[in-house]
From TrEMBL:
InterPro entries documented for this protein: SseB_C, SseB_N
Name of this chain's protein: Enhanced serine sensitivity protein SseB
Domain SseB protein C-terminal per the UniProt entry, residue ranges: 148-247
Lineage: Bacteria, Bacillati, Bacillota, Clostridia, Eubacteriales
Domain called SseB protein N-terminal: residue spans: 16-137
Protein's organism: Clostridium gasigenes
């Protein structure tokens, strides 16, 4: 590939920096995530008839490509997604390091395959270290598939209020002390209905939301669950005239 091709993703980098202190940037992050092009290290063995001319490789039969990942402390494998050459250099400083330019769709396509050995991917693992695991990727995919133009959204209190789930969430929030306020609503979007948690919290959705989802899972009884930060436009609108079920 052409190593001189500019890959910067500056808007995404700026948003990731702001997200450390402002969780209302989640939707901006997701928008930029879907548009971004990342550098993914790989090991490529060219087939006999492949060509490498002027920095452009023409791949023919027999070429193999292996994406390079990293392992977490608990032994799970993740792909790496670098926003620019500087971030890539924090991993390895090699003049001839092979890389592919991949999009979010490319990553999720590899990770969500039935035979995939990867648990997700990490954006700038030696910098911002934003982890997107399988559950979060599936949640992102579902959200953007359903957010169609003109789709109506109706919000209200759950007809059958999940008191057991709310009680467990209260206990969990008291324990971790990252959630300041929490609202539990029922959302109907298009043909699909789900619980909606609107949260005022400290941290970033990528680390906070999956743990909350784990607490809720035993009490969903087949129903879906969505979560959004209170600082988003939708979050602010959703809680109008609503009372939090949890507040510090």
């Amino acid at each position: 590939m052409d190593v001189n091709k500019p890959i910067t993703n500056q808007k995404l980098v700026d948003i990731m920096q702001k997200m450390k202190n402002d969780n209302s940037k989640e939707m901006e992050f997701l928008d930029e995530l879907l548009k971004a092009k990342f550098l993914c290290p790989d090991i490529m063995k060219l087939g006999a008839n492949s060509k490498n001319n002027s920095g452009k490789i023409v791949l023919n039969e027999g070429t193999t490509i292996k994406l390079v990942g990293l392992s977490s402390e608990n032994g799970k494998n993740y792909l790496m997604a670098f926003t620019d050459w500087t971030e890539l250099g924090k991993w390895k400083i090699e003049t001839n390091q092979q890389t592919l330019i991949l999009s979010y769709d490319d990553y999720q396509g590899v990770i969500l395959k039935d035979d995939s050995t990867y648990e997700g991917f990490v954006i700038n693992p030696y910098g911002a270290n934003i982890v997107l695991d399988k559950n979060l990727i599936q949640n992102i995919n579902q959200r953007f598939q359903q957010m169609k133009k003109g789709e109506s959204v109706m919000l209200g209190s759950p007809k059958e209020y999940p008191y057991d789930m709310a009680e467990k969430l209260n206990i969990y929030f008291d324990k971790v002390q990252v959630v300041k306020r929490a609202y539990l609503l029922w959302m109907v979007r298009g043909e699909e209905a789900s619980y909606l948690l609107v949260l005022d919290f400290v941290g970033v959705p990528q680390t906070v939301f999956p743990k909350i989802a784990d607490v809720c899972q035993p009490y969903l009884k087949g129903k879906l669950l969505d979560m959004i930060p209170i600082g988003t436009v939708f979050g602010k609108s959703a809680i109008e005239n609503q009372q939090p079920f949890y507040q510090t």
